[in-house]
Amino acid sequence: MKQGITFELDKPRTLRYGINALAKIEDITGKNLMKLDLTNIGVKDLLAIVYAGLYHEDKTLTIEKVGDLIDEHSDLKQVAEKVGEALTLAFGDTKKVVKAGE
């Protein structure tokens, strides 16, 4: 099982990007994940990436609910940093994976 990055939203939640989460990102965004430029993503893509990373632990989540959780309990900068850390874990220590939003 892939490791994840835990951070506080409404409760401790863990972003984890196994193969199913990565496929979910491609399904939602319509973009090839290997070609997705994490240094230049929009809010919709970031939201899709967060949703896909959290879905493994809570199948009742929706993209809208994840957006509400971020609005109520975090901010885009912190979320982008956590996404970057979790994607680095998923892909290993490579120079291609950088912190989202940088």
Description of the structure:
By secondary structure, this protein is mainly alpha-helical. It has one domain. Helix content is 49%, strand content 10%. The protein is built from 4 helices and 2 strands, in the order E-E-H-H-H-H. It has helices at residues 19-29, 43-54, 63-73, 76-91, and strands at 4-8, 12-16. Strands 1-2 form a two-stranded antiparallel sheet. Strand 1 (4-8) and strand 2 (12-16) form a beta hairpin. It starts with a strand and ends in an 11-residue tail after the last helix. The model is unreliable at 94-102 (pLDDT under 50).
Please sum up the structure shown.
The chain has one domain.
List keywords for this structure.
mainly alpha; 102 residues; disordered C terminus; two-stranded antiparallel sheet; 4 helices; 49% helix
